[in-house]
Amino acid sequence: AHNYHPIPIVFSKAKGSSVWDPEGKKYLDFLSAYSAINQGHCHPKIMKVLAEQAQMLTLSSRAFYNDKFPVFAERITSMFGYDMVLPMNTGAEGVETALKLARKWGYMKKSIPKNEALIVSCCGCFHGRTLAAISMSCDN
């Protein structure tokens, strides 16, 4: 299904900031998967722990506890000086959660009347492909 116009280049492998097409032509990846790959493609430390973890537990839903989340949560909250963390799978989920938190804060702390909170966004931004994220975007 068509949802936007991709750049007409096919990638078949990547390492660090470099990507290659099926014919072996090398490119520098300045897009970095919309910044999701800031550490570079196939980072050796990430690949190592990813492979190790996949051998033990590939995924557990948040319906259950796992032994890795408390370690992660402690590190993140200590690093940034907060007492809670709510990780998301995607940037769009992060944006949607931030919107919910901002609205809740406005209603609870600023006494905004129910259903009157407004979200302001700027044209030219990209926040993902969820309904709320698309509603905050424009085509130019």
TrEMBL record:
Top class in the EC scheme: transferase
GO molecular function: ornithine aminotransferase activity; pyridoxal phosphate binding
One Pfam family of this chain: Aminotran_3
Enzyme Commission code: 2.6.1.13
Keyword Cell membrane included in the entry's annotation: no
GO BP annotation list: L-proline biosynthetic process
UniProt entry keywords in alphabetical sequence: Aminotransferase, Pyridoxal phosphate, Transferase
InterPro entries the UniProt entry points to: Aminotrans_3, Class-III_PLP-dep_AT, PyrdxlP-dep_Trfase, PyrdxlP-dep_Trfase_major, PyrdxlP-dep_Trfase_small
Highest rank taxon of the organism: Eukaryota
Pathway(s) per entry: Amino-acid biosynthesis; L-proline biosynthesis; L-glutamate 5-semialdehyde from L-ornithine: step 1/1
UniProt family annotation: Belongs to the class-III pyridoxal-phosphate-dependent aminotransferase family.
Protein name: Ornithine aminotransferase
Organism of provenance: Solanum lycopersicum (Tomato)
